[in-house]
Design a protein that fits this description.
Helix Hairpins, 7 helices, globular
Length: 139
Amino acid sequence: MEQPLNKEEPPAFSRLEQIVATLRGVNGCPWDIKQTPVSLKKYLLEECQELAEAIDNGGEKEICEEIGDVLFILTMLVSIFTERHHFTADDVLEEIIAKMIRRHPHVFGDVTLEDEHALRKQWQRIKSQEKQSSKPPLS
């Protein structure tokens, strides 16, 4: 049975960010405090592998748990980059939102596609254009 929504409690993602901030804070967990993007990379790969295995073999509960583990590592990474004043979770979310809208003009724009083959060609063309526009100028 679902628990009633507590209107005073912040959204779950905000609570996860708060937990990570506490874990990495002054009185937090020594292991979490010392983590870096490089040290977290192996855990991210492990958790993604466990998620892939759960998708292949597990039930919904196991998949949900593994998605949570991946999300925790991603939240740790965002926290580290936020601490370093590089970007925030909102920056990451705005970037992926813009990318998905840009790469789906057949959904969010006025482009009509005949089939999945045309869809894949469009996706690759847009992705290629993005890579070209993000390249630094040659000196």
